[in-house]
Amino acid sequence: MLMPISADQVRSLHPYELRILLSLEHLMKRFEWVPLEMIGGATKFSEGELGYRLGRLIANDLVRYQKVPYEGYALVFNGFDALALHTLTERNTVTALGSLVGVGKESVVYEALGLSPVILKFHRVGQRSFHAVRLARGYLPDEGHLPRIFASVYSADREYQALKLLHPAVKVPLPIDRNRHVVVMSLIEGPLLNRAVLPDPRTTLDEILVHVQTAFHRGAIHGDLSEFNVMVEGGDCYLIDWPQWIETTHRNAEEILRRDVGNILTFFKRKFGIDRSPEEAIAEVIA
Length: 287
Ligand SMILES: Nc1ncnc2c1ncn2[C@@H]1O[C@H](COP(=O)(O)OP(=O)(O)O)[C@@H](O)[C@H]1O
Ligand SMILES: [Mg+2]
Hints:
Elements: H1 7-11, H2 15-27, H3 36-43, H4 47-59, E1 63-66, E2 72-75, H5 77-90, E3 96-103, E4 107-113, E5 117-123, H6 127-136, H7 148-166, E6 175-179, E7 182-186, H8 201-217, E8 220-221, E9 230-233, E10 236-239, E11 246-247, H9 253-272, H10 278-286
Antiparallel strand pairs: 1-2, 3-4, 4-5, 5-7, 6-7, 8-11, 9-10
Helix pairs in contact: 2-3, 8-9, 8-10
The protein binds adenosine-5'-diphosphate (ADP) and magnesium ion.
């Protein structure tokens, strides 16, 4: 998996290179591989300048070039990361990129500095789930070519919407900003639930179910809830990782809610021997 570009790389990006990246981003709505003439037309750079700048972008792995089936250029995730970081830096949302926190199924997560320590979640929708997402959800057009990069933008946007809808009624990270496929949110300082030491697991379980209930009453079901998407900070539990949330009006809402609650109950049963009836827990959430 490609790593996001370094902060230095973003700073050293030449204005012409930035302009090429932006043109490519725009043209990729129409071309999977953008022909050289189109980039030339959009940027108005001379052939020599364009060749030199594209060469540098390719060497830095921000842009890819392919010869078949037709000659063209495309932004790759690194290039997209650079554009998002550039924008977030210009807005002063981010002043410095910190260390890698984790590489998830569908994301690369970094610490960063803004006004306070923040988390940058770079969404990376995989090829397989991209197809699944496109079929299962209403919010992606289901025809035509849509690169994974743009699917990742939808994914980040969905997550950001959930955080805005739920914070602070539900304990979720504070949504700070979003650009392209990157969500900026507050840093939760603590382990994931699966590794947390819990002095009083019953209370923790109750707390999580109250969050699920409050989210439900605001119209949202997490959709991927488990001990790997709950973080424990001090005595508080935070629900993270929201891109796949669904509205409570979704036709599979009940089934998905059952699965979410089931995952949590299974974890507390296996690890702490707490036996709670799923039916009662669901009834409480919906009540
Ligand atoms: N707000 C946050 N504060 C601290 N760590 C976070 C935060 N959000 C995510 N992480 C870390 O990044 C990992 C991956 O994030 P997550 O949102 O679960 O995405 P994925 O879909 O890749 O699982 C988490 O397991 C957690 O370790
Ligand atoms: Mg996760």
